[in-house]
Specification:
It contains five helices and seven strands; from the N terminus they run H-E-H-H-E-E-E-E-E-H-E-H.
Length: 226
């Protein structure tokens, strides 16, 4: 009879341990979701509601402040040449007393030169400061602020290419969809009308985000079974 009593005790202990583990996991998800919500613009909160059974597996933000990219090795010299030509043209037209049409014609090129040499760095920093990323067991979330807050939601059940570009320190970019050299060069430029594949851009833990995306289908299946 002693062994029966011991077996019953072991089973009760196992059930209690499993219950504590489930409670700990729920607390982890709750804290993660609270931290995610605390970083959002208040205007995002009505738009972002996790569905029943949806869990936040990972959240992060892009690199803050001014930042350089690998593509700037080409873009900076090009932008200097463009701006130099645009300013020279405008100065020569104004100095020569040419018709005002020619001076007006050069203004868009001067403004574009200012943007690609200096302005794009500040625009990029402003955008990244108002961006938040998340991975749940059902979808990928890209939350952007600014003048018109928006939430882009990508269904993880839809097949898509997922590419991770990570540096030795773990930082990098995770891209969802096809990539090419053009997209890599102009990522973060925010040209009007330019369509880029959705991404977690310049995050500090690219590998963790990639692992969360891979883990999400298993979490979703487990939630469906439960």
């Amino acid at each position: 009879m002693l062994w029966l009593s011991s077996l019953a005790t072991d089973r009760r202990g196992a059930r209690h341990s499993a219950a504590r583990t489930r409670l700990h996991v729920r607390d982890q998800y709750a804290r993660r979701e609270a931290n995610f919500a605390s970083t959002l613009d208040a205007r995002h909160l009505p738009l972002l509601r996790l569905a029943r059974g949806e869990k936040l597996l990972w959240s992060g933000r892009p690199r803050q402040g001014l930042a350089l990219r690998k593509s700037d090795a080409l873009m900076i010299p090009f932008s200097i040449l463009w701006a130099g030509f645009a300013f020279s043209w405008e100065a020569s037209v104004v100095g020569s007393g040419a018709p005002s049409f020619f001076a007006l014609w050069g203004i868009p090129f001067v403004l574009m030169g200012l943007y690609i040499t200096v302005g794009r760095f500040f625009v990029g920093a402003w955008q990244r400061g108002r961006t938040q990323y998340g991975v749940t067991n059902d979808r990928i979330l890209i939350v952007t602020g600014g003048l018109s807050p928006s939430i882009k939601s990508l269904n993880l059940r839809t097949p898509s290419d997922v590419t991770v570009e990570a540096k030795p320190d773990g930082s990098g970019t995770v891209t969802f969809g096809p990539t090419n050299l053009f997209m890599s060069m102009y990522r973060g430029m925010a040209w009007p009308g330019m369509k880029m594949a959705p991404s977690f851009d310049q995050i500090s833990d690219a590998r963790s985000a990639y692992d969360a995306v891979r883990q999400a289908p298993r979490e979703s299946s487990a939630a469906g079974v439960a």
